Structures are given as C-alpha cells and as structure tokens.
Amino acid sequence: MTPPRLSLVDQHCHSVLRDDPTADSFAAHLTESDAPPAPGTSHLDTQLGFAVRRWCPPLLGLEPHCPPGHYLDRRRELGADEVNRRLLGSTGITDYLLDTGLDGGLLDLPGFAAACGGAVHEIVRLERLAEHAADTAGSAEALADGLAGAVREAARTAVGFKSIAAYRHGLDLDPAAPSRAEVRAAAGRWLDGRPPGGRLTDPVLLRHLLWSAAETGLPLQLHTGFGDPDLRLHRCDPLLLTDFIRAVRPTGCSVVLLHGYPYLRSAGYLAHAYPHVYADIGLSLSYTGARAGAVLAEALELTPFGKLLFSTDAHGLPELFVVGTELFRRGLTGLLAEWTAEGAWSAADAERVAAMAGGGNARRLYGLDG
Amino acid sequence: MTPPRLSLVDQHCHSVLRDDPTADSFAAHLTESDAPPAPGTSHLDTQLGFAVRRWCPPLLGLEPHCPPGHYLDRRRELGADEVNRRLLGSTGITDYLLDTGLDGGLLDLPGFAAACGGAVHEIVRLERLAEHAADTAGSAEALADGLAGAVREAARTAVGFKSIAAYRHGLDLDPAAPSRAEVRAAAGRWLDGRPPGGRLTDPVLLRHLLWSAAETGLPLQLHTGFGDPDLRLHRCDPLLLTDFIRAVRPTGCSVVLLHGYPYLRSAGYLAHAYPHVYADIGLSLSYTGARAGAVLAEALELTPFGKLLFSTDAHGLPELFVVGTELFRRGLTGLLAEWTAEGAWSAADAERVAAMAGGGNARRLYGLDG
Amino acid sequence: MTPPRLSLVDQHCHSVLRDDPTADSFAAHLTESDAPPAPGTSHLDTQLGFAVRRWCPPLLGLEPHCPPGHYLDRRRELGADEVNRRLLGSTGITDYLLDTGLDGGLLDLPGFAAACGGAVHEIVRLERLAEHAADTAGSAEALADGLAGAVREAARTAVGFKSIAAYRHGLDLDPAAPSRAEVRAAAGRWLDGRPPGGRLTDPVLLRHLLWSAAETGLPLQLHTGFGDPDLRLHRCDPLLLTDFIRAVRPTGCSVVLLHGYPYLRSAGYLAHAYPHVYADIGLSLSYTGARAGAVLAEALELTPFGKLLFSTDAHGLPELFVVGTELFRRGLTGLLAEWTAEGAWSAADAERVAAMAGGGNARRLYGLDG
C-alpha cells in the first residue's frame, strides 16, 4: 500500500501565534508543564520535541534534527507570517474546527483562515461563553436564566461545542441536568465576589452548560485524559462520563471524547458501546512522537472505524499542525500496511477506513458537506 | 517455529443459534452495543467484523474479505446446521466449557454437543440459578435458605460456576460473606414486587452466591472488563476483586478472571500474586482482531504461564469460535516465534507454554482428564 | 546503531544473599507471590524466570535455558561468594543506590560494596527508620518529636529516602503535612500495644515521614504500582499522589516514582507535568522479560528524557542485577535503533538519551559526581 494522501479534517485545534515566539515561549508550547524545565533538562528533549525537529526544519530549508537554535534563528529570519503560511500549507488539512476559547496573542478566526487557506469552522468553548456572560450579567438570576439561550445562540453559527469540565472539576460530575433553582443558586454563589474574568469551576453550572449544549443537538466535545497541571488525570478517565453519556442519549446529541491518553482503550469502549459516542485521536499522537503508531493502534482496537476522528489539538505553533498530521498519516499508513500485508484486512477496507478516520467521519458528524 | 496445531480447551463459551440469523441479528452478534449502528456507520466496520470476514468465508467456499452480503447469502444457502457444523468443525477445540445461562434461540447443551463433535462441560451461571429459584420460591425465607443448597446441587454436574456480578452491581462489592440474617432480608426485598423473570441485582444476594460457589471448591469464573452497556467499565476492573480474592482464599476455590480488557495487566498481576487466581484471554482477542497478538502480549507479561486460559466467549454465531481460535493461535505463535528467534525463550519452553495456555492449564484446573 | 555499553547507575536496589539459596528460596525471589506456586505450576514459568534462564547460565559456564536444576547445582558448586562476584561483575553498573530497609540474610552495605566492586550509596527507608525509633522510644511524645530529627540525621549520609506508604496504606493519603498534635496522637495510638518490630501503617505517621523527608531536600523515592500481596494495586496508581506532588513542590524536594507497572504512562505524565517528578523504569522490565522493550516504550512516551531513571530493584539474587541490566540495555537499544532507522530520531540524540536514562539523570539528581 502506498501512503494515501488523505484530505484531512482537523476536528479540534486552536489558532496560532501572530508574532514570532521567543525561545522560551516556543519550548513552553511543546509541553503540558506550567514551569521551566527541571535543572539539567529541556522541554525539547521529549517525543514531541524530537518530532518537531524531524518534520519542521525541512519545511524551512534546514536539515531534519538540526540544533534547535538553528531552527529558531531561521524561523525568526522568515517571520511568523511566512512560517505560519509554509507550515500550515504543508499539512493537507482542508477543514479546521477551531476552538476559539483561548487567548494569548493568537490570530483571530479570519486571520487564521487567511493563513491556513482552508475552511475554518467554529467550536464554542462552553466555559468561556459562561465567563463572558458572567462579565456582563446584571444579576445572578439573569445569568442563570440566560446561559441556555446564549448556548442556543452560539449554536446558530458554531458546528459544535467543547467543554473543559475535566479541568475545572473532573469528569466525576453528577450526570443529571441540574434544576432551574440549582442553577440560580449556583450562579449566585459564583458571581458573589467573582473577580473580572474569574474562572468557572462550579459543578452545577458546568453541568448546566453540558446539558444546554446537548439540547442543541450539535456535537459536544469533551476534554478527557491528559493535559496541563490544572487537571487531576485520574479524574479525567472518560469512563467517568458513562452515566452522563447514558443520560444525554435521548437528546440526540453526539459526544466526542477528545485526546484521552492514556485512557484510549476506555474511550474506544464507549464509542463501541454507545451509538452517539465518538473518539478523537489527536493530542495523544503529537505528544508521543515515535510511539504514535503504537498509540493509534490502541485506539483502533475497539473504536468502530466510523467513530474515529483525526485532530491535531495544535495551539500557538503551526509546527503542531505539521507534527499532528505527519504522525497520524504515518502511524495509520504503517498499521494498515502491516494488516493488509498479513491478510488481516483487505486493501480496499484499509483505504476506506483511512478516509473515514482522516475526514469522512468528521464531515458526516459535523455536517461539513451540508 | 511452525505454528503448533494445539488441541484447545475453550474454557468459556455459549451455544450457537439454532436458525439462520437475519442480517441485523448477525451484525448485532458482532458488537457489544445494544443499539443500531450510528448513522453512516456499520457494526461490521470493526476489528471483529474484519476478522470474521477474513477467516470465515473460505470455510464456506468464498474469498476472504468478500462483501458481507455475499457471505450472508451463502450462509443462508447452506443453512444454520451445515454452517454450524463446518465452522465448529474447523477450530480444533476438543472441549467446550459452556455457560448455559443465556437464552434466545440457542441450541441446547445436547444439540450443541452434536453440532460441535467435542466434549461439552457445563458452567452454571449463578445469577440465572438464583432467578430460577426465585421464580418458584414459596417464600423469601425458603429462597434465602435454599440458594446455597441449589449451588451445591449444581456442583454435582457442573465443572465450574460463573458470576456476572460485574454487570449486575460492579466488582466493588463488600468482600465478606453476608450473614444468614442479611441474606434473608435481602431475599425478602428482592421477592417483594419482583416480576416473573426479574433480574437479580441485590449486592447481598450476589455476594451470597459468590461465597456459596466458592465453598463448593469448583473454579469460579467472574466477568471482568468490557461487555455490553449494562455495565460500567470502570467498576469492572479486576483489581476491585482484590479483597474478595484474599477473603475467599481459605476456601480452596480457584478464581478465574474472564475477559478483562482493557485491564489485562491487572488481571495478570492478580494471577501472579495469588496462587488461586487464573486469567482468561478470550473475548479480548476476538474484539481486537488484527491487534490480538499485541493484546495477548500484555497478558503474557505478569500472568504465570501455568495460569493463562484460552477461551472464545463465542455466543450465537459459530463464526466467533473460528475467529477466537484463529486469533489466539496466530497471536500466540507470532509472539513465541519472535521470542525464540531472538533467544529470549527456548523453543522447548515456547512449545510447552503454548500447550499449557491452549488447554493444559484448563484441563488441570477443571479436572477434565479426571 | 551498535548497542552502547552504557555506564549504569542503579538508582534503586537491595543487597544480595550472603549464602546459597535453596531451590525454594531461589524461586521465591523470582515472584511477588507470598505462597508456593499453584498445583501443577512453577514460579519459574514466568517472563522473569525465562529471562534469568537466558542470561545467567552462560555467566556460570552453562548453556542458556538449561534446566533450572542444572543451574542451581552449578550455583551451589561455585558458592554464593563466587556467584555474587561473577554476576554482579557482569553488569556494567558503576553506582548502586541501595535501599537498606530489608533484612533476611543479606550482605550488609560494606559486604555488598566488596562483592559488586562499585560505588554504593545509601537510600534510607522511612518506615524502617520509624520502626527503629519506635523500638527504643521512651514515650509517644518523644517518638513524635524525634522523627523529623531522625530523618534529618539520616540525610547527612544518605543520598535519598524511600517510602513504602503504598504497601502500608495505599497512595490515597491526605496530601497535607499533619500537625504536631496529630503526629503526637498518632504516635500514642501506634505505641499503645505495639509488639517489638511492629509495622508502621498509621497514615498520619506515614505522611509525617514523607513531609520530614521532603523538607531535607533529598530526592524522595515512592513505591508505586505492583508489588507483593501486601498491597492493593489500584491504590498504588501514582496519579493518587497528584495532590501530594503539588503540595510538596515548594519544599524543593524531588519525587521519584518507582516501578509503576502497569501505570507507567501515568507516571510519565506526572514527570512531564511537574518539574520535580522523575520516573523509574526498573522492576517493570525484569518482571516482563521478553516484553521489556514494549514496556519501556510506554515509559518513553510522555516522560521527558531528562527524567527517566534506570534501576534493577534487585533483591537477594545477583541474577536480578543481570536480568535488569540486560533487559534495559537491549530494550532501549532496540527502540533507539528502530527510531533512528526510520528517521524519527537522530543517532546523536539517541546516544544522548541512552546516556541520560542509563546514568546521567541519576548522577545529576542524586549529586553523585559532587
């Protein structure tokens, strides 16, 4: 089998930096840590760091694995605009589902669309939406009563929602929708003494947002698995969502389990057992680099092939789009070549599954061809 | 090393359908989901579906990976009896340990024995036994006092027991045997308002059954790990049985951890640490198809080689016996060939371990040669 | 890439037996089980048993995989001193960090140093230190008030501390340092009726020891993951330490997560997310034998390469030093050869990472070159 040149849908990503990153900021975008590296270590001495050093230098005219300093020099020489254009242009991604819930010197949605040259669709982050609403709410009651409407309003232009309840509380939430009285009381507690921009961590309001999103019928992306030190990983096992998944099933909403590492097999089980559950394979590949094929293979155990979704979860650096797509393509191609060579799969099925995971499933789920 | 033609003991399986399945029923037997496939997806687009399409068509005179429709046409043309005979006859299984606790158009035990041509031994499902007892019990007291006796009676002809407490409650049960008073009270609560055929979910009675079975000294099979949406997977981690395993040790009963995916390494640890614990590798291979060798390899990390047990957990379709045996044989042969080629194992040890896992361990544990 | 002859630092090990082991004692040192093998099975029919039979016979002039009886005969013929010398001398370990908290016919620290010919550094086991203090304490108050001082005193000569709180309670401990009053009350409860040599299991005192060690600034090794049946494996997931890791961060202490199997990916995540966390890869390789490369590969997913630490966790038998080093060297070499061959890593980086994991990281962390 020759490596297919898949047309990819990146079903979960973020925008890139407008300006040149400093060396420290570049390294900080390649780790989930919130701190400088330990003495004597480097944030680039990781699978992700090595993957960036493999794939990106040639796109800027350098040798793979050249010293990081050379790469950063060349990057600055070309400038952020040119680097964004070259790297984003290399990936073969045709559609980007952009989570617009992060700040920090990023290109806005039109700016990103111009840089990447693809179709860009918005994913609305629920906690951010609530925090904006809280910033301008006249009263707790108005906030409480207005949240569901704000979610419905966002659904008019977004293709899906995202929740980071995993970060803000953990996935061990009460699965039921809270009552109107509970939501009002929680809104009161939250607004009382909240500083401007204060984060939403209240579990009642987090649940209210999840249920409000579910009732729009749009796909609901949930962070699961690893991330930065804001979360407790064992409280991000997607299996903790089982009762929520059951409860939300009658709404007709689809649940997309993002990332999931190291609980990819659990996410695959949920996608297998429940018709409305889908499993993402994004961040887990970028961060595991040379091991991406082995990690992807675990996701391909129980996940029905019509339920697997590609993404990069890239954020800030266009390098993360490059690495995410290269690792996905090579990992998938390697597995399919092995399985067809030994006769376990037919070549026709392998090609079909590659097209589904790379973009077909996402196009159908988010209605991108609609 | 040439692939050994192992004589296999299938230490956990179910009977097959008497009649031709419809296309929908065929697909439904190839998933743990309880629902039609999601829009645009198919229950056959899975590792298990592809494994069936690889191994079974040639046994009916078709090409591997032929379209599912051709296969089902050919299957109907031959008829269920002939298909059962051909597929079951291809496996090399000499002994079947049949869990008789499922209904739904299946061949009865003598009918299955005639179809498979092997020796068939009964595994009695504890919850089913209790539900039958409840259907005819004169009083709660009579039910409570009679359960242990019914279990002892079943032990006269069965070779082992099985519990699906994982489904009915989760494995996070109180490890201790309940008192007689607790059992009587629980039986009263259960019978009170129970519809005919009503399921047993009461944790006190589930524990009473487990302890009654343990006291017979027969091996006790426990469902662990994945299954259909009736269970919560994170409450089926075999490690949740640790305190029960310790408590039951003095009875002399052996505990067999069934399935276990994705917690195979945890099951291997328990089999390693406790002399009376055994680990099954069945369902996990069928459902992971092209990945079966990789999954089996994890079970071969800590599980002592005298503690690993082959099974298919086939149910309804004879195809599942074919796939379960082919994947086990190829997966095991592949690993042993790799390890002997690099000198890590001797060829003699590899052959010995293959014979143990394929049937020798089960023969010894269940006394099949007695 | 040719296999590098790494100069290794064994960052966690125990001493070896002074005298020849019996056949039963030899086998008992190759399992985490506390019992004779199940009927019809052998403690040598495991990955660890096969690894010992592969690597050790040639060092005593026998064929690899010779029958265990021949090996034990030859071992007795040579005698414990000669066997210890030959096997320890074969490993290429230059520095041993010895946990001196175990008894049972082991060479003392000078005796071990003479046998191995390398530099030996002491790791003090906190629970043992407290049990010694309890044996001689005049009063509960004196014990409570003296523990932190005893830890500080030990820090004058030790290079690090070790805790087996995972065994004695589980890692699901309250993360905060207990108050002085709590420590005094706990010491009173413990001493009240304690038999001489009685084990410390009180969670307040376990936490007090952890915090006392952290405040010395020396690295703190914590048992995580599998071990003998004294522990409950699901209560040894390193992720249960997350809140302790956060709480202890300001002390400047480094936390070393030992063993970790099967939670190696979780340990890797913690080492990735927190600057003061390191991940050990020792016992997990010895016990998984032919699978050691696959297990090591999982540790190499998220663990930053400057945070991975080699060890053997050998105890009693010099064979365990041989197996631990051979499996680490071959596993690492195999992975690096694969990754450099496919271009994912540069050869220079691979060499650098091998040197870091084999010893450089430990030298820096424990100040061995100081």
UniProtKB/TrEMBL annotation, chains A, B, C:
- Molecular function terms, GO-annotated: hydrolase activity
User: Per the database record, which ranges form the Amidohydrolase-related domain?
Assistant: 173-368
What are the alphabetically sorted keywords of the record? Hydrolase
User: Is-annotated flag, keyword Translocase?
Assistant: no
**By what name is this protein known?**
Amidohydrolase family protein
Q: Which organism is it from?
A: Streptomyces morookaense (Streptoverticillium morookaense)
